[in-house]
Design a protein that fits this description.
Elements: H1 5-20, H2 23-46, H3 50-77, H4 79-99, H5 103-111, H6 119-139, H7 142-158
Length: 161
């Protein structure tokens, strides 16, 4: 998986929170963004593939910048349209990010062993996804609900036996 996807996702959801005036979504994604940046700094310090990581991060910044420029144009036309379009973009990015660990399922099937999957991490992701789903219902935000339903579904399907 490209290392910058988590940063890109946090940036997009943070922008979504700003457009929706939702402090919870903004706060969670600001914290997530700083945690991902910290992870990247540590990863960069210890990786042997710095050139490849720089290219991936540059791609992430270009993609995020392009998306935000597009959304700012859409916002100038219609705020409701911009929120809707960014919500779709955020959900696509989230599906990509949460579906990528499903590649581990192929390893589980091939080896007939769940040793490569973390049960506590899977359970934690389902619980967090469920809480975000309930938050989406509470605030009436379909994009938050859909995002986390997909997250929970992906994790439950990949959960070790």
């Amino acid at each position: 998986m490209i290392k910058g996807v988590c940063i890109f996702r946090a940036l997009m959801w943070m922008a979504y929170g700003i457009l929706k005036h939702d402090d919870t979504i903004m706060l969670v994604n600001v914290v997530g963004l700083f945690m991902q940046i910290g992870y990247m700094v540590v990863f960069y310090a210890y990786t042997a593939e710095r050139a490849r990581l720089r290219v991936q991060l540059l791609f992430t910044l270009v993609a995020a910048g392009s998306t935000l420029l597009y959304i700012s144009y859409a916002f100038s036309v219609s705020e409701e349209s911009a929120v809707f379009q960014l919500g779709i973009i955020c959900n696509i990015i989230t599906v990509i990010m949460f579906a990528s660990p499903l590649s581990t399922v192929a390893l589980v099937i091939r080896t007939k062993s769940t040793m490569s999957m973390s049960l506590p991490m899977s359970v934690g992701m389902v619980l967090v996804g469920g809480l975000w789903f309930l938050y989406g219902i509470q605030v009436g935000d379909a994009f938050v609900e859909v995002r986390l339903c997909l997250q929970c579904t992906n994790v439950i399907n990949a959960m070790p036996e």
